[in-house]
Amino acid sequence: MTDSQQEIARDVAAVARISAVPALLRLICQNTGMGFAAVARVTDGSWTACAVQDDIAFGLLPGGQLPVETTLCRESRAARLPVVFDHASQDPLYRDHHTPRLYKIESYISVPIVLPDGQYFGNLCAIDPRPRKVSDQRTLAMFTAFAQLIASQLDSEDRQRAFESALADERAVSELREQFIAVLGHDLRNPLAVVGATAQLMLRRRAEDLDLLRMGHGLQAATRRMSRLIDDVLDFARGRLGSGMGLALADEPDLGAALREVLTEARTAHPQDVFVDDIRIDVPARCDRARLQQLLSNLVGNAIAHGAPGRPIRVSASVEEGGLRLSVANEGEPIAAEYLPKVFEPYWRPATSTPGGGLGLGLYICAQIAKAHGGSMQVRSSAAEGTCFEAWLPVGTAR
After folding, report:
1. Which among 141, 185, 208, 249 has the fewest CB atoms less than 10 Å away?
2. Which fold is adopted by the domain 5-164?
3. Long-range contacts for 63-70 (Cβ within 8 Å, ≥24 apart)?
4. Which tens digit of pLDDT belongs to each residue from 11-36?
5. How confident is the model at residue 364 (pLDDT cuts 50, 70, 90)?
6. Which value, in Å, is the radius of gyration of the alpha carbons in the chain?
């Protein structure tokens, strides 16, 4: 321990927070007849009272200090042993000692307070100007037990303080991460918005120029793809570094219409693909509409990327017994059995994937959306039946 005023004040406050200390000091005085008892913080350079029971007007209050060289606690600290005598003026060892003479005491007991990690905190001590019987084993055992209890409580206090400090640091880091994610999303979307606006301008002004028209549509498609990639990266960052997959739960009166919007967009963006839908949701649901649209969009995008060209992509959705069952199936090369457990892992893509096809976050985010709703994702794949991704979410009914 150091002797800085900050450290001394911290330790005095720590002892003050131990609710049992005042009762222990009163009990010491009652059982021994000693008029003054204290918990003292003791180092090589200072002696500080942290808690006192003063029935003899000794005049020392919590936070008060004595020159450490005038105390017997320094000797107790050096030897890490109790110092005790019943009648100083008749004790062959202490009758000529400067401490009893200076403070006019006859009886004295001081027991080390050593923390569980071996650090010396101070002493539990008691004094009186009259002779008292304190050197017996019963009294010494009581002081030793009380000193160990105080040490244990101080250790718990220190651990609690460290935990609270770590928690505050973690909260600060979490806030910093959230700010970083927000800034990252803003900085990525700004140039993307410029590209999108440029594409719109090209389509409006030069509708008769087929080459520019193709370029405009290409820019729009690239903008949509980049926007989805940014969404995926930010969702992954929030899940791993921030506050997790956030949901904005609300009563959704027509979830079926929300899912059909996703399919309408897919049909517009991929006119060469065939989509067959069977969406039968005739009850309101409590869910995050935007997240479920994102889940379906990711599953449909995966089916477009890996399904057999020209073969239908089948989308079905229904609410049964309070749960939404949503599936997207495609035909084509099945997923190898050894890969099935990996498909929902972040950044994982099969070795046969076409370069530039994506970051490998789409299915991971689908699984996280399902998990955030309290549901799950499953996949089955075979040459005979194709590949089917299915989400089950306990969306419940609107309240």
Report:
1. 208
2. Beta-Lactamase (3.30.450)
3. 63/9, 63/12, 68/42, 68/43, 68/44, 70/98, 70/99, 70/102, 70/103
4. 999 999 998 899 999 999 999 999 99
5. confident
6. 37
